[in-house]
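Task: sequence design from structure.
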């Protein structure tokens, strides 16, 4: 797992997170995938329309993102945001 104390790539990644919070229905799958890799490490499963990322807890919020013709579905985007928030809470 990638530590939240390490720099979160570039400024564009922060912009992606802001956009995810503003418009969860308008996020590119590749952008969401990049954010998930930065916070949760490499996907356990990818290559299909789904990518599953491991979290340090069991159950919700799960990190299972879906590719819908290049866009990420809104529901998994909200789950990813919840999981990132939970990670930040655990680190503080």
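Answer:
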């Amino acid at each position: 797992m990638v530590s939240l104390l390490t720099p979160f790539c570039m400024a564009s990644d922060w912009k992606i997170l802001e956009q995810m919070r503003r418009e969860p229905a308008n996020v590119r799958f590749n952008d969401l995938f990049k954010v998930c890799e930065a916070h949760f490490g490499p996907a356990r499963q990818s290559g299909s329309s789904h990518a599953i990322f491991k979290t340090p807890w069991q159950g919700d919020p799960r990190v299972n993102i879906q590719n819908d013709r290049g866009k990420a579905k809104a529901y998994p985007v909200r789950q990813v945001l919840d999981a990132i928030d939970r990670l930040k809470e655990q680190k503080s």
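Helices lie at 11-22, 29-40, 74-91.
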